[in-house]
Amino acid sequence: MHNIYIYILIAAAVSYAIRALPMTLIRKPITNTFIRSFLYYVPYVTLALMTFPAIIQSASNPLGGYIALAAGIFLSWKGCSLLTVSAVCCLCVFVFSFI
Known about the structure:
By secondary structure, the protein is an all-alpha fold. The protein has one domain (4-96). It is 80% helix and 0% strand. It is flat and about 55 Å long. The mean pLDDT is 90.
């Protein structure tokens, strides 16, 4: 009835097309500043959309997740290292899981 190899082939073709078509269709450098800035920020937005809900939902208490998220954003804004930010966020979730 259902052949998994067909599904794998279709998924591989779509993944390849998404990567290969821009390389073959766009020959000149992109000079439009709007498109360049859009393409520059796409990875950051994608990472944020995957990370922020996981921060909130991974904690046993959603309040701890929100506070850890706020603390992480604040410490990142102040220029703290990744190790410091992650340690403080883990500590926030740990402390607020008991409340």
